[in-house]
């Protein structure tokens, strides 16, 4: 318990915080908080008017509770009241509460904006700063609408206090980031630029952030800032460490401002004016020189501040990429840091050198550090530093050092951290291909990759080695020999079997002369792996076998015998069975000529950008890749499948008597496995999504998804309702198509103006789902309802939901609302009936980890059979009776219809009534790799729970 | 800067400041994941890491971790010194600051941060000027000082 020694500020608050800290358990804490919430609520609701102090205290307690992670749904009004208090501390707490807990409730925003307006015009600098801080913290569009035109005036006015100018500059920056269309500098531009000359260093420090951001967007309008920035920088760099008084930080003059100035200059090309450029080069040289001087202090703060400027200067030098002398000096400086005892400096040096490696002037200089970097890869104790070393090796690789670098990366892979293995594999594969002089080295490298890190070798990597082997006849014999040897290993990775099967099926004849690798030996070797492999690999092997019959007629009898055996010809997997039956038939009725035509060697693949490169770019996330590159990689993905399609052409003859058009009729199964590659562990990290949503073009209102889950198992109902608006929904789906009717009802008696709705498919969804609609009438009369029709087409598997953004004006205030539209993958289910025997046979075949998802969840309410059944039917599957031997269990089957493919799903729900647990033992099995299923079960689970 | 988090060795959040609009749910998820990631790191490791598409800069002071998420083009070392300057400001204001000061006077910690950083950018880097602004405000209210026995951050 803290002792209060002087005054008692908010004693009640301190006591409350102590109480919370003394709680022994989470339950006790929640109990204490609920008690406090009840107390505060009764105080706020009580008849007696609260004085300002009590209001402040309670608002502060609510804030504390919120910051502990609990929801707060009242007290906003009291906080707003505090804003208009003339006591500074009450106002301050009110603003803090608003800043932390802002709510887009329009009534409240209007009141808050009123209070801000009063404080901005109060001419009291402390109040003005508080108001500006609040705008900068909230940064909502409503605030931008209200204040974006006022703040530039405050910023440049001659009589504004320095501290207010600082807040105004950064406040404007925040508004510009959220609503660039509302912040118009126009007439203020030149006066804002001249803030770089301000006498007060703090004003310059704040203003330069604003200027940098504006320059990035409108470089021409702000280009006069370059010469001002150079002269300011020059004055700082040449000043003695004491000149700048309190802006000197551990003997380094104005490090923050220096970094920001160097950063601003990176928005522009090198200055054209010779004098300005000369001055700047001088500055950069001085900064590089200072790095060699003995430190003025042993404190880490001194060296950090000094090196922060140095790294920013190096960034500028790299950005200009025009001063060979500076580039080489920068490289040497970074070279010193590579061996520095400070891990942070080693990390940054590796990172910075990566960009230096791509400059023609410094590429050679970077290469001289190869041994140090390799050593870092081997000895650094921190994985994030090793990752940087691997990146740098990749960046500095060229024809002269590729063999060494690839060898080092391969040997590192054996012990590499799991988190970076996949990326390392891609990088090795790319370097091996890019710098291969002789392709036997390339083949060796990729096979080594599969041997060392088979699990991390994605489809793209092994497709690529096959494309290259097929296209280059000088390497085919070597490839056949090498895979044959690799397959001799007692335990070899399934990816090795795939590559081996494909290559021997095409080019096994090239090594068949050697009795040690005669046709039968080759076949027996492949077939010895068959039983350990998954269905897609087995399918590929069956195709290799039929190719063998063509290549080596002497193997025909043996292979036909294999195809004829029950485990093939009666295999419960449709694909395998079909291949076995058709290949057997083909081999027995077709003449040698026909066989030779159908099973001809694969024609060369068209030359194109490596599919792995595209994958690596994709992995780097949207931040690092431009839109065009992303499109390229998408197209690349398409072409990859296209490559499979050509195989399909060859196969169509073989499969001409196929009764069902199979999506994986491709001879070697590339097509059937393609979806896995096409849907890489959608690493679209949360932040990427989140921040792209937060971007200037996206709605600022948070997505409301309350109504969303309720529609997983039903198609009609009320999606959203508040005091103003009700949105109803009616939808119907057939095959991969759907139609959704949206009904917007105006609940008020006042007209909604500028009513617009936008449906968007964020991110990946764009290519997965096609949603079309016509704009609605912009006016919705009071009490009226308007209708909008959406046509939906499911192109392929998807997991996100489309967003519906609604904007309209109600009584002058802009309303902005974003909802998730309840379009989920299960809407495209077609129920499938099957017998118990069929069900379990299929169930057992689907045993790959990626074909299965299991979830155990607790039911909140009683598990009523009828309700559960209704839910499962609502999901879109067929509910199968008398299938599961245990009558308590529910089993379902259905086929998801998308434009590109059809995917069968089996589901089993095992309720455990005693434990009130829905134990779903292997609840979901799908016949193809199906990336959405786990998500989709999430939809299911909260829903079944909310019965 | 996109956000700043202060948390204890036990993973309890002591201060959170967000400079980009995110829903409450997203904030909670980000803090949970990031706190876990950082607490799993060993001492002496690098103060920087790539996390999702952000750069994380963090430093531990006694029992408290200070952690900033900055964008790709931002300078890691200067961010590290932003953290240090903030700790210095807290230290100067509270007089040998410790974790309990920040728990019991969380509102002060927010006010000081707002004077120093605004909208994720350095507003005023002079220690004297920041503290002057805070002290002026304090003149307008009763001062309270708590005494604790705890490890000081600096």
Automatic annotation (TrEMBL), chain A:
Localization per Swiss-Prot or TrEMBL: Cell membrane; Membrane, Coated pit
- Locate the residues binding a 1,2-diacyl-sn-glycero-3-phospho-(1D-myo-inositol-3,4,5-trisphosphate): 11-12, 43, 53, 57-61
Q: Where is the composition biased (Low complexity)?
A: 650-664
> Which SMART domains is this protein grouped with?
Alpha_adaptinC2
Superkingdom, natural source: Eukaryota
Q: What does this protein do?
A: Component of the adaptor protein complex 2 (AP-2). Adaptor protein complexes function in protein transport via transport vesicles in different membrane traffic pathways. Adaptor protein complexes are vesicle coat components and appear to be involved in cargo selection and vesicle formation. AP-2 is involved in clathrin-dependent endocytosis in which cargo proteins are incorporated into vesicles surrounded by clathrin (clathrin-coated vesicles, CCVs) which are destined for fusion with the early endosome.
What family name appears in the similarity comment?
Belongs to the adaptor complexes large subunit family.
Subunit structure of this chain's protein:
Adaptor protein complex 2 (AP-2) is a heterotetramer composed of two large adaptins (alpha-type subunit AP2A1 or AP2A2 and beta-type subunit AP2B1), a medium adaptin (mu-type subunit AP2M1) and a small adaptin (sigma-type subunit AP2S1).
Q: What is this protein called?
A: AP-2 complex subunit alpha
Species, as recorded: Sparus aurata
Q: Lineage from the top down?
A: Eukaryota, Metazoa, Chordata, Craniata, Vertebrata
TrEMBL record, chain B:
| Alphabetized SUPFAM superfamilies for the sequence | SNARE-like
TM ranges are none
Q: Which UniProt keywords apply?
A: Coated pit, Cytoplasmic vesicle, Golgi apparatus, Membrane, Protein transport, Transport
How does this protein sit in the membrane?
Answer: Peripheral membrane protein
Single Gene Ontology BP annotation = intracellular protein transport
Report the subcellular localization: Cytoplasmic vesicle membrane; Golgi apparatus; Membrane, Clathrin-coated pit
Keyword Iron listed: no
Q: Which GO terms describe its molecular function?
A: clathrin adaptor activity
Q: Which GO cellular component terms, listed alphabetically, does the Swiss-Prot or TrEMBL entry include? A: AP-1 adaptor complex; clathrin-coated pit
- CDD domains xrefs: AP1_sigma (cd14831)
User: What is annotated about its quaternary structure and interactions?
Assistant: Adaptor protein complex 1 (AP-1) is a heterotetramer composed of two large adaptins (gamma-type subunit AP1G1 and beta-type subunit AP1B1), a medium adaptin (mu-type subunit AP1M1 or AP1M2) and a small adaptin (sigma-type subunit AP1S1 or AP1S2 or AP1S3). Binds to MUC1.
Q: What family is it from?
A: Belongs to the adaptor complexes small subunit family.
User: What is the stated purpose of this protein?
Assistant: Subunit of clathrin-associated adaptor protein complex 1 that plays a role in protein sorting in the late-Golgi/trans-Golgi network (TGN) and/or endosomes. The AP complexes mediate both the recruitment of clathrin to membranes and the recognition of sorting signals within the cytosolic tails of transmembrane cargo molecules.
Know the name of this protein?
AP complex subunit sigma
* Annotated organism of origin: Sparus aurata
